[in-house]
Amino acid sequence: MKKILLSILIWAVGSILVIALYFAMLLCTVLLYPFDRKRAFTHMQCFWWSDAVIALNPYWKVEVNGLSNIDKNRTYIIIANHQSLADIVLAYQIKMQFKWVAKESLFKIPFVGWSMALAKHIKLERGKLGSIKKVYREAAHWLRSGISVLFFPEGTRSQTTEMGDFRNGAFKLAIKERVPILPVLFEGTGTAIPRGSWIFTTRTCAKLHILPAIETTDYQPADFVKLRDLARSVLERE
Predict the structure, then answer these.
(1) pTM above 0.85, yes or no
(2) For position 219, which CATH number holds?
(3) Which of 153, 171, 189, 194 has the fewest CB atoms in 10 Å of its CB?
(4) DSSP labels for 182-205?
(5) Domain limits for position 43
């Protein structure tokens, strides 16, 4: 009974935080619209939200390593493995500006999707070639504007601790735009949110590892497979 009541409290307060985040982002967007076309201040609201969600959940212990590997004056293509929706919460612990590439269905979720739209994250319609091309045009636009872009190159959440195959697009884009790859590893988030149940039962030590950037200036367009495999091997070793 204690776990049930605690889980109800976690979900209820978590929902309130999501709603509060949306209205905070909406307020920033409206008030700062003429001065913040990149939605940087809107995006920054997710920092306190991430802190609050992590502090709220007694089942979570979060560890962040490698923040010193981020140069705030540089723009990156961030590539990360994907284990659960908890990755979204942890990613904001990086405390840097970025745009997600996220599937279209997420933008339809009340408050969550509305917040993503306010922050101008990049919408992907799976299975549509035109949408994929649009994603890379938008991603290139943000990179050239000094905003990093985060990809989950597996394309979907892994059902195990093993990473799936990486797709090529992020690595082709990194070479084309001459921006470094910033590898980010999520560890332990696969059990952070209950699967098949809403009741929290497992204490999770979730870790976020920011690894040293991989420079792309010496890569030619045909070398994207080499870059992809290097990035994957770096994450696997960690």
Answers:
(1) yes
(2) 3.40.1130.10
(3) 194
(4) EEEEEESGGGTS-SS-S-----EE
(5) 2-237
